[in-house]
Design goal:
The protein is mostly beta strands. The chain has a domain at 10-52 and 62-158: Deoxyuridine triphosphatase (dUTPase) (Deoxyuridine 5'-Triphosphate Nucleotidohydrolase, Chain A, Distorted Sandwich). 7% of the residues lie in helices and 33% in strands. It contains 2 helices and 13 strands. The protein has helices at 10-19, 107-110, and strands at residues 23-25, 32-33, 36-40, 44-48, 66-70, 77-79, 84-94, 99-105, 114-115, 122-123, 128-137, 143-145, 150-158. Strands 1, 4, 5, 7, 9 and 11 form a 6-stranded antiparallel β-sheet that branches. Strands 2-3-13-8-10 form a 5-stranded antiparallel β-sheet. The chain has a two-stranded antiparallel ribbon with strand order 6-12. It starts with 9 loop residues before the first helix and ends in a 45-residue tail after the last strand.
Length: 203
Amino acid sequence: MSAPSSVLSDGTILRLVEQGRIAIEPWDPAMVQPASVDLRLGNTFRVFHNHRTAAIDLAAPPQNLTEQITIGDDEPFVIHPGEFCLGRTLEWVELPDDVVARIEGKSSLGRLGLIVHATAGFVDPGWKGTLTLEITNLTRVPIKLWAAKPIAQLSFMTLDAPALRPYGHPELGSHYHGQVEATESRYEGGPGAPAPDGSAGTV
């Protein structure tokens, strides 16, 4: 019988990164928490243009609904009350075929009304890329976001066995493999379409 999966501790995370089994770039050991790693905000965002479509129809998802925005090191990105946008982590993450991860918001930011993921919190084994953040401002006041500031945390869990088809496998059609920037949805929801890719770093 296979051993049950477990959440990795700080010592195990440090060891796997040192061994090259988990890659996080840029790497700063000071970002490691007791059972997670803090991730920082990247400098690109995708904002939605609501005037381009009357509705989002999942049977025929609209294309080119977002525009990429890049901010400078000394320039904030302002997300207004009730707004939703896509961001990305500064860090590039790579996982082996027997480790999965979950991206979660930081409690201190959640208490300020900032949510960093809606559904794409799961990072598949074999993932390579930056992680897309689904950012929402739940408050009634604008929030300024700054690149390179801590925005989320990533925890890791071991699988009971290596995945037979890790993320990026040719049979999976992994839409977001190797993504560098925040990537708008590539949902395929037409009749007979394959199940949408809902893994991490993804939207």
